[in-house]
């Protein structure tokens, strides 16, 4: 390591042998007794001569899940990055929702609703964090201002009747290019059993849970190891049969019927949602700053573009200087505040609260310099905005089988009858008359969709983007969505809530 490192340049990592006695280490589980650390990792920065040390460990919880954590002495924090369902149940086939077999304060009839579970997640998450901190830091008083949420993954397991159905549905989803993915993106990856999308703010994916469960790093290997260690079948990996009939479905077969939706929200995207929807939302000065920013920024962007192209910016700069000093200050302040990263904690100071509610509270001097607090409160409102993104992502990938041609013909006839009635109700010569839809026109769209999605047709040059828009508009008129695929197949049975999930848990 030393021989490869150039003097005074770069950085290098090294893992130092544990200073503890061998007796302190359980080599079968990787645990260290007496709260000692398993791994000491050092990072040396040659330019400054500084060496930073982090301590890492993993402990086996009561759910037979390894909880990993690290301690950075130089930055004074403990980081714990883990899955809540795995921490509670040992698998994320189970979900972080109230279960009908557990004690909870909710009405069992409401537990099947996806929207209801989204609504109650915040209070359940805060309760979980409180209990978690009490379990792991019993005798240590920790201020809630020091408890940060730097990443949160929202997930949903969608169940299908058969494994083949889940994989077929995923294949249909791959044919749809979503509106929020740029045509030039390099971050949309379609693997055999997953779709992965990543941009500057977040990562989103849909994957076949069964394939992930059975992979080399999946839960199956860990579950079998735990069963062997415990000397009993704690995790029912394989299904149980009697006289050739399945009497209890195992985790592996359950996972094979699941498509899992996930979005990872890190600080940049949480900051974006906070600044866009929650920061100073009742402050009239901030609202005015938003308007001024949009107006001034159009000119600023044009100046930037013209400079790159080598075009004249004289008139644009004149236009910029004609804006009032207040508008230019607002443009600068809004841009700075919008791009300033936040840290989200379970509590914040009164000063930070005021600065997050008012633009004037962020003013640091009479020159128009604004400096808002980095600290922001992790709230139910912020989590709700994250859920909106997640549920929109799930909805964007919803696929339905197209009606058969005969059924679609009935839709066209019904639509045209409604058009006739509407047109007859209008005064003679009215310009508000609606046009009928041609049955042949709709059928031609269905013929296209039998083999390709709209986006595929545009990419292949079969239709233009304008034609795609007209096709989508025509389908919308007869009650069909842009994500219908004309496969003339039986509708794939799939869950859109938690009803099936609760049903299999009570089987």
Secondary structure: helix percent = 25-40%
Overall radius of gyration: 29 Å
Low-confidence stretches: 1-38, 182-186
Rounded mean pLDDT score? 84
* Fraction of residues in β-strands: 15-25%
Structure class: alpha+beta
Query: Strand count, sense and closure of the main sheet?
Result: 5 strands, antiparallel
**What would the principal axes of the Cα set say about the shape?**
globular
Q: What's the total helix number?
A: 17
Largest sheet, spatial ordering of strands = 1-4-5-6-7
**Straight-line N-to-C gap:** 57 Å
Q: How many individual β-strands?
A: 18
Walk me through what this model shows.
- This protein has 507 residues and is an alpha+beta fold.
- The chain is 40% helix and 18% strand.
- It has 17 helices and 18 strands.
- The chain has helices at residues 84-89, 114-136, 163-173, 209-213, 219-230, 251-256, 267-277, 284-309, 314-321, 325-338, 350-355, 380-396, 405-424, 439-449, 454-459, 465-477, 499-505; strands at 11-16, 25-26, 31-32, 39-45, 50-60, 66-72, 77-80, 151-159, 188-191, 194-198, 202-208, 240-242, 245-248, 258-266, 343-345, 375-377, 400-401, 484-485.
- The strands form six sheets. Strands 1-4-5-6-7 form a five-stranded antiparallel beta sheet, with no helix packed on it. Strands 8-14-11-10-9 form a five-stranded antiparallel beta sheet.
- Strand 6 (66-72) and strand 7 form a beta hairpin.
- The protein is globular.
- It starts with 10 loop residues before the first strand and ends with a helix.
- Mean pLDDT is 84; it is low at 1-38 and 182-186.
């Amino acid at each position: 390591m030393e021989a490869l490192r150039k003097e005074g340049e770069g950085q290098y990592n090294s893992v130092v042998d544990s200073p503890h006695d061998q007796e302190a280490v359980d080599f079968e589980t990787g645990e260290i007794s007496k709260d000692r650390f398993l791994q000491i990792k050092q990072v040396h920065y040659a330019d400054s001569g500084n060496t930073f040390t982090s301590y890492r460990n993993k402990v086996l919880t009561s759910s037979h899940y390894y909880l990993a954590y690290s301690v950075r002495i130089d930055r004074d924090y403990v980081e714990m990055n883990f899955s809540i369902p795995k921490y509670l149940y040992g698998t994320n086939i189970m979900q972080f929702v109230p279960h009908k077999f557990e004690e909870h304060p909710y009405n069992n009839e409401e537990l099947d609703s996806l929207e209801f579970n989204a609504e109650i997640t915040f209070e359940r998450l805060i309760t979980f964090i409180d209990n978690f901190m009490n379990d792991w830091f019993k005798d240590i008083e920790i201020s809630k201002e020091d408890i940060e949420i730097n990443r949160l993954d929202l997930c949903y397991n969608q169940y299908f009747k058969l494994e083949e159905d889940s994989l077929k549905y995923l294949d249909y989803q791959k044919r749809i290019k979503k509106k929020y993915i740029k045509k030039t993106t390099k971050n949309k990856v379609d693997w055999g059993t997953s779709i992965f999308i990543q941009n500057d703010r977040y990562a989103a994916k849909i994957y076949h849970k069964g394939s992930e469960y059975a992979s080399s790093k999946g839960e199956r290997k860990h579950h079998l190891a735990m069963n062997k260690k415990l000397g009993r079948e704690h995790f029912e990996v394989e299904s149980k049969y009697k006289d050739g009939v399945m009497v209890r479905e195992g985790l592996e077969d359950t996972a094979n019927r699941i498509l899992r939706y996930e979005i990872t929200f890190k600080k940049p995207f949480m900051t974006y949602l906070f600044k866009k929807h929650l920061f100073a939302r009742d402050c009239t000065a901030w609202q005015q700053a938003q308007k001024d920013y949009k107006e001034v920024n159009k000119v600023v962007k044009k100046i930037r573009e013209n400079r790159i192209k080598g075009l004249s910016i004289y008139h644009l700069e004149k236009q910029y200087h004609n804006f009032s000093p207040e508008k230019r200050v607002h443009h600068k302040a809004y841009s700075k505040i919008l791009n300033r990263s936040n840290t989200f904690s379970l509590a914040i100071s009164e000063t930070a609260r005021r600065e997050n509610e008012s633009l004037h509270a962020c003013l640091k001097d009479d020159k128009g310099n604004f400096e808002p607090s980095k600290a922001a409160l992790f709230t139910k409102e912020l989590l709700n905005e994250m859920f909106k993104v997640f549920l929109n992502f799930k909805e964007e990938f919803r696929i339905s089988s197209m009606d058969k041609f005969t059924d679609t013909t009935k839709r066209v006839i019904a639509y045209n009858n409604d058009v006739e009635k509407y047109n007859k109700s209008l005064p003679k010569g009215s310009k508000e008359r609606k046009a009928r839809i041609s049955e042949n026109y709709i059928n031609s769209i269905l013929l296209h969709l039998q083999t390709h999605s709209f986006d595929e047709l545009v990419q292949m040059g079969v239709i233009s983007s304008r034609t795609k828009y007209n096709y989508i508009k025509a389908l919308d008129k007869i009650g069909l969505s842009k994500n219908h695929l004309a496969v003339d197949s039986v509708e794939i049975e799939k869950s859109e809530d938690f009803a099936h999930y609760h049903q299999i848990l009570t089987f």
